[in-house]
Amino acid sequence: MRLPDMADILLEFLKPGPHHAMVPDIVKLGQIAAVLPVTNAAPERGFSALKRIKTRLRSLLKAETLDNCLMVSMETPSSLKDFNIHAAREAFFTQKRRRVPVNAA
Fold first, then answer.
1. What does each of the 105 residues of the chain score in pLDDT, given as a tens digit?
2. The three-state (H, E, C) secondary structure of the chain, written as one string
3. What are phi and psi of 59, to 5 degrees?
4. I need a surface site. Which of 8, 28, 60, 73 has the fewest CB within 10 A?
5. Is the pTM of this model over 0.90?
């Protein structure tokens, strides 16, 4: 027989029962604990990407530009084998034209 671990105890505690009315704040705390990430790998990947992007030569990037660079860095496929260049090209060329010509007066 296996002893219950903390996850089993938490799941049992979150099942509806009379304790929900007796200790609603503890139940809410258990619900929050159930959805918290177990590791901090995602933030660590973010800081690693920030370290790669924000170098001494790029230290003057605007916040919006830095956010965009981080998004591209973190959301790219894990390897180039997963990237479909033909689909990307088609998506790029089939989008509507976004630049609006400005008439110099």
1. 777 787 788 888 888 888 888 888 888 888 888 888 778 888 888 888 888 888 877 888 888 888 888 888 887 767 677 778 899 889 888 887 766 666 655
2. CCCCCHHHHHHHHHCCCCHHHHCHHHHHHHHHHHHCCCCCHHHHHHHHHHHHHCCHHHCCCCHHHHHHHHHHHHHCCCCHHHCCHHHHHHHHHHCCCCCCCCCCC
3. -75, -10
4. 60
5. no
Return the CA Rg of the chain. Answer: 24
Q: Which two tokens stand for residue 92?
A: 């790029």
Ramachandran bin of 26, using left for φ above 0, alpha for ψ from -120 to 50, beta for the remaining angles = alpha
